[in-house]
Amino acid sequence: VHEHSSRIDGPFVAVNCAAIPESMLEAVLFGHVKGAFTGATNSQSGKFEEANGGTILFDEIGEMSPAVQAKLLRVL
Description:
The structure is a single chain. By secondary structure, this protein is α+β, with helices and mostly antiparallel strands. The protein has a single domain (2-75), classed as P-loop containing nucleotide triphosphate hydrolases (Rossmann fold, 3-Layer(aba) Sandwich), CATH 3.40.50. It is built from three helices and two strands, in the order E-H-H-E-H. The chain has helices at 22-30, 47-50, 66-75, and strands spanning 12-16, 55-59. Strands 1-2 form a two-stranded parallel sheet. One of its GO terms (molecular function) is ATP binding.
């Protein structure tokens, strides 16, 4: 789908939701700033920012908790 869309020149970012620990999923998707949580030694962009202008694929989205799915729905 990405290769035949108007966003072909943008990045394709695949997110395997089952492979990301529940405690880190929000930080991976939305990014974080340095010191936001224990172990956040630097700021990091999230998958949404990385996919800007391109396509993002959520694989195994059913493995996300309902709370994180609700946050994702608000973004979409």
